[in-house]
Specification:
Elements: H1 9-20, E1 25-26, E2 32-39, H2 43-53, H3 59-67, E3 70-75, E4 82-84, H4 87-97, H5 99-104, E5 108-114, E6 119-124, E7 131-134, H6 140-145, H7 153-166
Length: about 170
């Protein structure tokens, strides 16, 4: 397995996005995949979003937004893959798709989805700001309670880059 340094994973994803620029590229495993930037953020953009919505985003997610930004990644030939949503679209999507869960789990903040599987990526507001891609067929309440389902966003991205770029 190709080892990733967690501190470099945001830069590695950013480099894949720059290299692809919305067009398919050949990955080291021989599979074609597309990466595309949706928008970038400044510290000021993030702070304004936090103030407007009265939340504090986890530090590692803020770092992701600063280095990578909202993006589409690991997009396959059927145009399915992972999307990290622009900040200005998150609440409308959360309200449309997860309205029932917002009151029950106010600390869950939707940041991504995997259209191949129908899974949703959340960061946990407050505390350590862990990330998890919740499987579409799992009950969110059960998933939230399982500590092993949550990790740093850098760890999840490192595993995803390993899988989609070097394994398969």
């Amino acid at each position: 397995m190709h080892e990733r340094k967690y501190m470099d994973v945001f830069n590695e994803l950013s480099a894949l996005i720059s290299s692809s620029n919305g067009e398919p590229i050949d990955l080291p495993n021989g599979i074609e995949s597309t990466f595309e930037s949706i928008c970038k953020y400044t510290e000021r953009d993030i702070k304004e979003f936090e103030l407007a919505h009265d939340i504090v985003l986890p530090d590692q997610y803020k770092e992701f937004l600063l280095v990578v930004g909202a993006c589409k990644c690991f997009i396959d030939s059927t145009l399915l893959g992972v999307t990290f949503y622009p900040l200005n679209e998150i609440y409308s999507y959360m309200n449309k798709e997860y309205d029932d869960y917002l009151e029950q789990f106010p600390n869950l903040f939707l940041v991504a989805d995997d259209s191949r599987l129908g899974d949703a990526g959340f960061v946990m507001l407050g505390g350590d700001g862990k990330f998890s891609m919740v499987p579409h067929d799992e009950y969110i309440a059960d998933w939230v309670e399982e500590e092993c389902n949550w990790s740093e966003i850098k760890s999840w991205l490192a595993k995803s880059i390993n899988f989609y770029c070097y394994e398969q």
